[in-house]
Amino acid sequence: MLGKTANGLYWLSRSLERAENTARLADAGQRIALTRLSGADDEWGSILQAAGGWDGYMAGHGEVTRDDAIDWMLRSPDNPSSVLSSIKSARQNARMVRTALTEEMWEAMNGCYMAVRDALARKVGERDLPECLQLIRSRTALVRGATHGTMLRNDIYDFLRIGTFLERADSTARILDVKYYILLPAAAAVGSDLDNVQWESILESVSARGGYRMVHGSRVRPQEIVQFLILDKRMPRSLNFCCSKIHENLRYLVNDYGQQTESADMAERLASSVRAQEVDDIFDYGLHEYIQSFLGSIADVGRQVEVDYRFYE
Amino acid sequence: MRLQISHTTRYVFDEPIRHGLEQLRLVPKSNRAQNVIQWQTGVSGGKKELEYDDYHNNHVELISIDRNTTELTIMSQGQIELEETHGVIGPHRGPAPLWLYEKVTPRTKPGKECRALIRAVEGEGELERLHGLCRIINEAVAYEVGASHAGWTAEEAAVAGKGVCQDHTHIFLACAREMGFPARYVSGYLLLDDRIEQDAAHAWAEAHVDGLGWVGFDVSNRQSPDIRYVRVATGLDYGEAAPVTGTRVGGDGERLSVDITVQQQ
Amino acid sequence: MQRIVFAGFRGKAGVMTETTPFDEMWGKGDSLRGPYSAFQEWFDGEDHSRLRAKQREAEDVFRLTGITFNVYGRSEAEERLIPFDIIPRIISAQEWQRLSRGIEQRVRALNAFLHDIYNRQEIVKAGRVPLDMLKRNAAFLPQMCGVTPPGGVYTHIVGIDLVRTGDDEFFVLEDNARTPSGVSYMLENRETMLQMFPELFSRTRVQPVQNYPRDLRRSLGACAPIGAGEDPTVAVLTPGIYNSAYFEHAFLADQMGVELVEGHDLQVVDGRVAMRTTQGYQPIDVLYRRVDDDFLDPLNFNPDSALGVPGIMDVYRAGGITIANAPGTGIADDKAIYSYMPEIVEFYTGEKAILQNVPTWRCNEPDSLKYVLDNLKDLVVKEVHGSGGYGMLIGPAASRKELAEFRKKLEARPGNYIAQPTLSLSTVPIFTRKGLAPRHVDLRPFVLVSPDKVNITPGGLTRVALKKGSLVVNSSQGGGTKDTWVLGD
Predict the structure, then answer these.
(1) Which chain C residue is nearest to residue B239, measuring alpha carbons?
(2) ipTM
(3) Residues C47-61: pLDDT tens digits?
(4) The architecture CATH gives domain B2-82+244-264
(5) Secondary structure class of B241 (helix, strand, coil)
């Protein structure tokens, strides 16, 4: 496989994942906004921070409003992480690696692009937002379905998966960092219960509300959220889960190619360190510090993948 | 007469090279005026990729520059046996057709100044007119090391009235082609009486004369090449006959040094 | 897909007479021509509203599969669809046999010509093609002098553009010896027809086109350099996703099961051109390039090209790779050389050309120039080295002002132009809201050349001018395509 193709596959799935994550954040923001009592648009600030591109937004707008924030996240061409930018990028990469994809996957991707492009051709009004977000979710899910259902489990698939889980790990970590950091009142001691709206906002934005309840019941405490979003090995967006998938797929490549790589070793070290982590240690170390260090490690793995598999040269 | 020649080209870069290729036209070919006894090219900081004969029948070696290198040295040396042919190389042999050498290149496009030189040419026969051209350029354009730039065109040098052998040759090509002669650039070496070490390779021109074939004209020395001249490569102008041409990514801040020795054995 | 077909009127000695064009379904009158009889029977039994729905369905399929071409000249390259018409263009087995004999003869002559031009130039020495045609020709590539590619094949993939004017009258309009495009539409059109109207194909025996990718792969492989081994590595070189024919490049690579590469994926490694894979550099034996000569190699040609591979020409001359089509093949499809094709065919094959050329006046010849200037309003005048229909004059369609302006250009640089009469192009019905309606068409058959074989896919790409009376089949100007059937014996 060409290095360029591996690169295209990796960014195809990363962009697709990013589009989904951004849409999910917009959804979470909207739900919180609808369930709070005060009239301010406070939570959109932290939503924007979690979605990345906060500086870019502020440079263009100066103040945070619901409408602007949603538009920035869904449609803005100035925001490289907006749903539209991400879907465009995913489709562009799919075009580049067209020969590596099954017809069904390409058609799902192209169809996703056309549907999302049309749905986001104009500003999305408040009334149309749920339907629009639903469309984005279902269209991206179709691409994922076509990928799982039709792609061979070979190196092509491995690069797609690596892109997906790197992006997802990055996204979950950032959401946890920003939201938790901002929402957890300074006075709230570790161990105390959190306010409903706050925990919902965290879990909602990673589509984990139901899963959390199944595992931890309705009591919401920082330890349990951290346990669930970082350490739970069944939760498909947890850092532990993502890291083990990254490692797994890199190991497939190592076996497939018969070449040991630095990135596989790095992913293995990262996966086992997350797996062995205890909640209390994370709090002792400092949650923010822990996440920052994790974000650094995951970015290092990504860079090493680019080098090991000759994405650029 | 047997000559021993050594030609070392060294590049030093401030920034490491990321990728680079160089075409070398450094290996002379045997013909009626010269017989190559042995010749070799050595490279450090790079590696030979392949070799072939180009459309002027030059022997070309392609080398790649090692990744992340900051120094590239190309050593070419060998022995050659020379015969006196008074600058006559003989009939055209291709692979490029003879008419191609009538083609004007950007470097050899004649302007006002070149045309003025042509007008000063006297004489009747083809050979006589070409010798006349050689003399006129030699008188009008002073040989001056460092006076010109490597990128100068024939017309620029003619206007400046000074230059080195490359400029003399380009002017000759521009004028000879304008006069209707197929003509080509020759790069090579010249044995000097007073020294072994030389600053640069030499260059002269060849024009095609009916009946004789290719005949050499060394404007800088105002004569036709004799037994002291070694032909290495030919082309429509310097760009096609240059000893080293290439393309690089990275390697900013290039410094070039050339060492050439030509001695009789 | 960037070319305009002219014509529509029949010009004779300056007298313009409008005639009813030959219709491939109905001939000159109302009697159904043989090749269309089975189709006509089927069509009569069809409900038009069902066909209309099918036509729309076809477009949806094309859009979804991404069969689009990019349009330049806008801030963002836009992807557009080439309209597809569901009425097939049908050619009988006998008609095709004669055509393909002519095509094969012409393609062999083109390759022999290229070999001669880049080696001994016997045809010039024999006085059959003037030296001036080469000397002043930008398509002549000196770097090719002395090169004989593996198997002696220069133009591996050829598209011969044909027009028809009568029952038994075909003319070659243009040879495409560089990088003919459009073959993906030929394949997708057939695929679409098969999916939409399977019953049609069970009534009629249509010669298949689907083997093209396999044939292409085999044909390219057969041209690999000596020592390439049993299963040569083939790759397709594309300028990238913004190129107007990118879809086709990806399509062909995919169908052949080979890599689709761009210049920056390739590098000279160990004396070969190699592609950067996830497992290191892998050498390529045959490169089917869809990048123009000038951009192919920044070391040897245009130094500013970012699309090419530095040193590929060095590898090529050293015999380490096959480039298809060979660099410098443009000298054979140049419009001035075109006018010598009858002589060229005869010189190399020893036979008269089976396929006719459109009569061509070379304006560098004084008598011809005089004729052209006298009859400008009836002629089509083209730039010798131009392509894509730029800088051409369609006399019958031009205004007085345009004619006067063009006259000046012609007088200033006559050698830059050739002129041809306006032919009465044949028509084939398309499906409109009001039923069948005739529209002008041309045909581009695709030819594969390997050392031992000339392979012509039965049919080719039929382009159709969708506007009534229009002669412009160019896809960027409202042209569409049709499935082209060659019937079984």
Answers:
(1) C300
(2) 0.94
(3) 999 999 988 888 887
(4) Sandwich (2.60)
(5) helix
